[in-house]
Amino acid sequence: MPEPSLHRPLPAAAVESWDHETDVLIIGFGAAGACAAIEAANAGARVTILERNSGSGGASALSGGEIYIGGNGGTDAQRAAGFEDSTEAFETYLKLAGGPCVNDAKCELYAREALDHYVWLKAQGVPYRGNFLPGKLIEPPDDSTLIWSGSEAAAPFCDQAKPAPRGHTIQHTGWGGGRPLVDRLEARARELGAGVRVDTRVLGLIEDGGRIVGAVAKSDGAILHLRATRGVVLATGGFVMNEAMRRKHCPQTFRINDPIGDRDDGAGIMMGIGAGGEAVHMDQFFTTCPWTMPEPQASGVFVNIHGQRFINEDCYHGRVSRCAVDQPGGKVYLLLDSAHFSQPAEFARTDIAATGDSWEEVEAELGMPAGTLAHTMAFYNAHAGEGRDPLFDKRAPILTPLDKAPFVALELNFQTSYFSFFTLGGLKTSVNGEVLGADGDPVKGLFAAGRCTHGLPAWGHGYSSGLSLADCTFFGRQAGKAAAHG
Ligand SMILES: Cc1cc2nc3c(=O)[nH]c(=O)nc-3n(C[C@H](O)[C@H](O)[C@H](O)COP(=O)(O)OP(=O)(O)OC[C@H]3O[C@@H](n4cnc5c(N)ncnc54)[C@H](O)[C@@H]3O)c2cc1C
Q1: Domain CATH code at residue 54
Q2: Based on the domain organization, do 332 and 399 belong to the same domain?
Q3: Is the C-beta atom of 65 inside 6 A of ligand 1?
Q4: What is the dihedral of CA 427, 428, 431, 435, to 10 degrees?
């Protein structure tokens, strides 16, 4: 019998006997897989989930559990906080966030249905307190459930889409709402009768006459052949932990050092390509260094090694970090005055590179040519005092002069500071989760969702917190429904 392979489906004719039969076979039990399972079961399909770890979770369980939701006049939490979020503004923002990599159809569908999706999440038992916590936060420090989580209030986004906070976090005290989110979705999938096989790693797909009809897996040392009468859903996550794939597709990530996620080895992407699917925007990645912690540091100014600014710093911390990684010299500096400096968060691994009683002294200590950084700060401060940023259009209240000595430059070093990152590129899919080939035609019987696909979080420079889980949960549901209907 031919060996199973991630790169080429096994012909069904080579399967001597099937070990298991189901209607919808879901590979991966993170947020995307769980949501696919719930909807496939709701549609009346028999569902089996295969998970290589000893339990559900994947990267989803490591996450903050924050989901990007808005439109249709706003969620209860948005409206209570005074934000009427129109579908048009929400859709415009989603498309701006996708930038040159945007999938318009996914943005349009999600913009229309996100409010219903929020209601659906609640119906699965996901708790939301429904209150808004203002400020520049990465995750709510308490059990609040709505924060600003993107670049909505910053240029150029705010000029094209009316801003609203849209980061909806599961009610959970402190960081790490991803685990309880997945627990709730897992419980729901099990209640609906989904079968779960953990410690079961899928080694390859099985095809019959051009249609994907199952998968080969290894469990307890045994090789299993599992048949799916209606469809197979890939929900295996991204490829951030696969160095060979990153070297080939996403080499810029080697400028930074902290991949985050579970095992994220790209297996689902490889299986999808092997079955005839196409992977797109594989060079895209999210990154962030938590430079807005403590919060007063959000008012700082970034310069590159030439003492030049490169971004309006009131954008989302991840957009600023992603633009930072484009800068030359392997590092950037966050400039702060004594009114805005406090000890940086330890896990950010950002060190003080220079101090001084004037920006000229800081510039000299950094070894920059005289008049570079000092001129940047003189120009910035003069205009910030008038409430303007002629170069990058940073806005109040983050726009504030940095003129209270002493001054400090924190070094954000791409190799030694904490630049966490994960990949965004993946399989091209329809809004219903069908895996599409280069010709745009679906690969019969094969569906995919989550970070093994290209979806709402499409462009590293436009990423906003919550876009990935919005994509995983919503388009996971779409894939589950479509697979159940064969
Ligand atoms: C620390 C951290 C915080 C984050 N916070 C947020 C946030 O608040 N909001 C947000 O939107 N995004 C966040 N993200 C990103 C987000 O969590 C992920 O992009 C998302 O959870 C991916 O979900 P998924 O279902 O596609 O994959 P996963 O959750 O990784 O699930 C994939 C599953 O497939 C299994 N699997 C893989 N290959 C196989 C195989 N061959 N056979 C069987 N099983 C297999 C894996 O074991 C895994 O359990 C965060 C990420 C991290 C790491």
Answers
A1: 3.50.50.60
A2: yes
A3: yes
A4: -70
**Domain endpoint, select from 413, 428, 444:** 413
Which CATH number does the domain housing residue 306 bear? 3.90.700.10
Give residue 214's Cα distance to chain centre.
Answer: 29
Among 472, 475, 477, 478, say which to mutate for ligand 1: greatest number of ligand atoms within 8 Å of CB: 472
- Output the CA 262–ligand 1 centroid distance in Å: 7
In this structure, the residue with its CA closest to atom 9 of ligand 1 is 466
Nearest Cα to Cα of residue 214 among 444, 36, 397, 400: 444
pLDDT score for 481: 98
Instruction: Answer yes or no: is pLDDT of 1 > 90.
Output: no
Q: Are 350 and 417 in contact (CB under 8 A)?
A: yes
Q: Which atom of ligand 1 is nearest to the CA of 53?
A: 47
pLDDT for 277-290, tens place per residue?
999 999 999 999 99
Above 90 in pLDDT, residue 175? no
Q: Which domain holds residue 204?
A: 1-288+420-486
Tell whether ligand 1 has an atom less than 6 A from the beta carbon of residue 58. yes
Ligand 1 proximity of 198 Cβ (cutoff 6 Å): no
Q: Would you say the C-alpha torsion 80, 83, 86, 88 has a positive or negative sign?
A: negative
**10 Å Cβ neighbour count for 369?**
11
Summarised one tens digit per residue, pLDDT across range 373-401 is: 999 999 999 999 999 999 999 999 999 99
